[in-house]
Amino acid sequence: MSLIRCDDVSFSYTGKTVVSKVSFEVNQGDYLCIIGENGAGKSTLIKGILHLKKSSSGKIEYGDGLLANEIGYLPQQTISQKDFPANVKEVVMSGCLNKLKNHLFYTKECKEKVQENMELLGIADLSKKSYRELSGGQQQRVLLARALCASSKILLLDEPVTGLDPIIGVHMYELIRMFHDKKNMTIVMVTHDIPGALNEASHILHLNGEQKFFGLKEDYLKSEVSTNFLGGLAI
After folding, report:
1. What's the CA gap between 66 and 3, in Å, rounded?
2. 232: pLDDT strictly greater than 60
3. Contact between 25 and 7 (Cβ < 8 Å)
4. pTM of the entire structure?
């Protein structure tokens, strides 16, 4: 059974539909990139998948034993979030909050996972440094480490390379690819970086107020939707 299944899902704000007729599924090991124009409903869909936004119609279901608190999420950052007054270890540790259950304090297992993920992402030496003092690339690695503390199954990434120096962006893609290829993690990524999406993804979901395409990347590149959207882009 699929990890995530959306069946004819729509979302509205103040009575106005912003994205409609979305039907797709995400299976274990998929690398799905969600693309489309600005205002196409991509981030709204991610919020719906996370149960942060209620759909106005249709169904979103989890399968294969996946629970809502087992999804690692890397959100777009606001200006205020970039200035968050905590150190690196505290931010990464917050990814374990959904696993505390009845515990009042972080468990030994959580602390070990935090250390492991900070070392994996090369930020262990920054553990006591203020998050607000980090570069954009360092902040993204911290947030990625936090997401990994929340899940070992699936990552939802909302514009993970936006605003990053191109070289840092390439490194971020390499990290995500490592989690996908070597740790068998499922990836769902919203992005405006179309060349990056077409280089990394196994599947493409194209939105523009409604679903325009869902399927394998190879089939997307042969589609009329792709031709119309990519016609002016250098890929």
Report:
1. 6
2. no
3. no
4. 0.88
